[in-house]
Write a structure and sequence with these properties.
membrane; 5-stranded antiparallel sheet; SH3 type barrels; 50% helix
């Protein structure tokens, strides 16, 4: 019985270091994974709010086109002369003229 109490007493001091390590891991995950993702989502949402007719865009499916009209939750895009498609606003991903979209 005395042999079992010695290892249990030795682990008592390790509780704080384990807690500090878990907090540090969560902080690292937050600053390197969660925060940049939230920032990117806010940029995309702001881009979708400021869509204008005549703007060149790229959909999430990779379709390049020019906005012809904007409805409540949908956008009419011209992808070729006299070829128009209707897509959901949430599927619009980026501005086709932006340098960040061209480098990817």
């Amino acid at each position: 019985m005395n042999l079992l109490t010695v290892p249990l007493q030795a682990q008592g001091g390790a509780d704080y270091s384990f807690l500090i390590m878990m907090v540090a891991i969560f902080a690292i995950m937050y600053f390197f994974m969660i925060r940049p993702q939230n920032k990117k989502q806010k940029e995309i949402a702001n881009f979708r709010k400021n869509l204008e007719v005549g703007q060149s865009i790229v959909t999430a499916g990779g379709i390049y086109g020019k906005i012809k009209s904007i409805e409540d939750n949908a956008v009419i895009i011209e992808i070729a002369p006299s070829v128009k498609i209707k897509v959901d606003k949430n599927s619009i991903y980026a501005d086709a003229q932006a340098p960040s979209a061209q480098s990817k």
